[in-house]
Structures are given as structure tokens and as C-alpha cells.
Specification:
Blueprint (H helix, E strand, L loop, with lengths): L1 E3 L6 H15 L11 E4 L3 H17 L4 E4 L6 H9 L3 E4 L1 H9 L10 E4 L2 H6 L3 H9 L6 E6 L4 H10 L5 E3 L10 E7 L2 H11 L5 E5 L3 H13 L4 E4 L5 H13 L4 E4 L12 E6 L6 H8 L9 E7 L4 H10 L5 E4 L5 H7 L55
Parallel strand pairs: 1-6, 1-7, 2-4, 2-5, 3-4, 5-6, 8-13, 8-14, 9-11, 9-12, 10-11, 12-13
Helix pairs in contact: 1-2
Length: 396
């Protein structure tokens, strides 16, 4: 089956329920290292969220779900596989590693799902995906879900899906009816203050930057101005990424500053505002970023900040996305930002986290009888000489 639909249209539930039902109805038993269903996803965060969605369904019928992805130790993943897994949610790289180490086999896979296939292609995972599909039984059920059907994804469809049934929820460029788009032109000097005002509302805001350094710097700036924020990007450890995303999803922090790592697969309820602090370079990224808000019929707002030298490129990108935003020239204190964000939340100033200093090792006391190091005639410290044995010369 080939399923197409824009981000936020419910693709995870669309395959989670039938996959669990198919495995539960299977007569094959659970075997060590041999999952019966495989879900391939492009990112660690999406793997965690898919497993979280499928977990309660699988548990209700006595099935086990496990995740496999990089950024963490493989030992717990190997232990889970050895114990036996019914549904495995995996990123291609780590799964291939475990297969090569003989911890996992795909010979028993009855149902295989490729989620966010177009993003797998964008990240360069298609060669690995093809190698994985070649290891699954040819007669098994295969489902491919993608927001877009470009040339790379079409190659997968033609090679691995036999006479697929196509289900399309809506066009990829369909704009949710409750989603508002705004294009704010700002000067370089005003941009930082405008960003802080947009992030000052009482509801959740997701801010996108182009680079990892930009995300880290902006989150630090917001925290310094009393706007609690966490960052999400590839330079963080997996534990830190999980912790920051949980803080945003749980409500203890209302602002998330992220790179495009959060543009796909990340589902957090009630994100009221998405801000393209750095506009994306192509329209698909714009649509996927914007799709983090106005999900499941909820209202949402998207703001793109445009510097003078970005105007032409952003206008072309928005036109390709099929969006007609409300355009305005904005400066700090503009009533239009207040109208979008509502009343500002109370400022919270948190103590700065200081990295612990590296422990200094105390110098070891010299061994008894050893020569003390001291300055040589040249002023540099001399190294202790090794004792020589009779008849042996040691060169220094």
C-alpha cells in the first residue's frame, strides 16, 4: 500500500493499528533476534514517537515493541532483540550495524513499513533502505507512507511495491483551514527584538533556525531575557535531546528552538505559533516546519521573518509552496506581534548552568631515590633519566 498525505494528517495511526492487528493475528511465534514487523523511520525522535504510539496498542494484545537507533548505547537494544521483539521501529544505520553483528535478522518480517519515505530519501538513506528491504521476505506486506512522491520515492514504489493500492488523504500543499501565514519584513538590527516578542506569548512556540549554532545561541538569548527556552539539534546528545523535547511537550518550557530536525515527525499538542527565524531554502521544508502547528483541526499561526537581502528568495519559496501570507513590515513593539502572541507571559530568570571544571590531578610524589625534575641550563624542564644497566648506554 502507498499512503500519501501532508504532515499532521495521521499517518502514524494509519499504519500502527493494522500492523499490530496483523502481527497479533499471525500464527508465527516470537523468536529471539527476529522481529515480525519492521517500521523504518528517518530520525531518532520519530522512532521514539512511533514506538510511543504503537506501544499501548501492542501491549493490549500481548506484543512487544522496541526501538533501534543511533546516539545511544546498543546494549539495551541488543538485550531487547535477544529477549524477542514483535514490532521493531528502527533507523536504517543502527539497524544495519546490528544485522552485521548478527544481533538481528529480518527473515521473519511479515509486515514492513517505510514512514516519511521522502525524508529518508532527502537524508541519503535510500541505499540502506533498499538493502534492508532486500532482506525481508518478498511475499510480505509492505506499506510506504510519504508526504510527497518524488523521483527517489517513486523508484522504491516501482521496485518493492507490487500493484499497490494508493490512499491519498489530501495534496501535500493543502493548507489546513485554521492555519494563518504571515510574512514579516524586519531589519537586521530589529530582528532579535522581534523574535523575543514573538516568543513571549503564553502558549507554545516553535522557532526554526538554519544552523545548530544558531539554535543554541537563540535559546541562550531567550533564556537571558527571561523567556524559558530549550534547543533541539544534532549537536546534542540523545539524552539531552529527549530531555529538552520532553520539557517542551510537558509544558515546563513553552519555547523550543530547533533546526530542521524537528520539522518532521515531531508531534507536540497545542503548538500555537511556528516562527521561521531563518527561512528555509525550499518549499517542502517550509511546509513540513509549518505543519507542526494547526494539527488535527486545531488553529495555528506561522510567521516567516525576512531580512532585506532574503526578500526575493523567500517570495519564490512561498510561491512554490502555494501560500499567500499576510505581509507586513515589523519593528519592535508593533501591535501586530501582540495580536498574534496575545498577552506576554511572566519573565522567568533561571540561574545559568555552569559546566563543572575538569578535575585537576594532583602531581604524584617522586619515587624514593628518583631524580627530581628541575630546570636545565636552557631553562626547560629536564626529564628524569632512566637507570642504566652495566654495559648499556641509553641515548637521550
Amino acid at each position: 500500500m502507498l499512503g500519501r498525505g501532508r504532515t499532521g494528517s495521521g499517518k502514524t495511526v494509519a499504519f500502527a493499528v493494522p500492523v499490530v492487528m496483523a502481527v497479533a493475528a499471525s500464527t508465527a511465534g516470537r523468536r529471539s533476534g527476529s522481529p515480525r514487523a519492521l517500521v523504518v523511520v528517518p530520525t531518532r525522535e520519530l522512532a521514539a514517537q512511533v514506538a510511543a504510539s504503537m506501544g499501548p496498542l501492542a501491549k493490549a494484545v500481548g506484543l512487544r515493541v522496541a526501538t533501534v537507533h543511533g546516539g545511544v548505547s546498543q546494549s539495551p537494544q541488543v538485550a531487547a532483540l535477544r529477549k524477542g521483539v514483535d514490532v521493531l521501529v528502527a533507523c536504517p544505520g543502527r539497524l544495519e550495524d546490528l544485522i552485521q553483528q548478527r544481533h538481528c535478522s529480518l527473515a521473519a518480517v511479515e509486515v514492513c513499513v517505510l514512514d516519511e519515505a521522502d525524508h529518508l530519501a532527502d537524508l541519503g538513506f535510500l541505499p540502506a533502505v533498499k538493502r534492508l528491504l532486500e532482506q525481508t521476505p518478498a511475499g510480505g506486506q509492505r506499506l510506504l507512507f510519504s508526504a510527497t512522491l518524488d523521483r527517489a520515492v517513486d523508484a522504491l514504489v516501482r521496485r518493492y511495491l507490487r500493484n499497490p493500492i494508493i490512499h491519498s488523504v489530501d495534496a501535500v500543499d493543502t493548507t489546513p483551514p485554521e492555519l494563518e501565514h504571515h510574512a514579516f519584513s524586519v531589519t537586521v538590527g530589529d530582528k532579535a527584538a522581534v523574535v523575543r516578542e514573538l516568543a513571549s506569548g503564553q502558549e507554545r512556540s516553535l522557532l526554526f533556525t538554519r544552523t545548530k549554532h544558531g539554535a543554541k545561541k537563540l535559546a541562550s538569548d531567550l533564556n537571558g531575557h527571561g523567556i524559558p527556552a530549550v534547543d533541539l539539534h544534532g549537536n546534542l546528545s540523545q539524552a539531552r535531546r529527549d530531555r529538552n523535547l520532553a520539557a517542551f511537550a510537558g509544558g515546563s518550557t513553552r519555547v523550543l528552538v530547533a533546526t530542521d530536525i524537528a520539522a518532521r515527525g515531531i508531534h507536540v499538542d497545542d503548538i500555537a505559533l511556528v516562527v521561521h527565524v531563518d527561512p528555509p531554502t525550499e518549499h517542502k521544508a517550509y511546509l513540513h516546519r509549518s505543519g507542526r502547528t494547526a494539527r488535527a483541526g486545531a488553529p495555528g499561526t506561522v510567521v516567516t521573518l525576512i531580512l532585506p537581502d532574503q526578500a526575493r528568495e523567500v517570495a519564490s519559496m512561498i510561491r512554490q509552496a502555494g501560500i499567500r501570507p499576510t505581509a507586513a513590515r515589523i519593528s519592535p513593539g508593533d501591535p501586530q506581534t501582540v495580536a498574534l502572541t496575545g498577552p506576554h507571559a511572566e519573565r522567568v530568570f533561571r540561574p545559568q548552568m555552569v559546566e563543572p571544571a575538569a578535575r585537576q590531578r594532583a602531581p604524584r610524589p617522586p619515587r624514593q631515590g628518583a631524580r627530581q625534575q628541575g630546570p636545565s641550563r636552557s631553562g626547560r624542564a629536564s626529564s628524569p633519566r632512566r637507570p642504566t644497566s652495566p654495559g648499556r648506554t641509553v641515548r637521550t
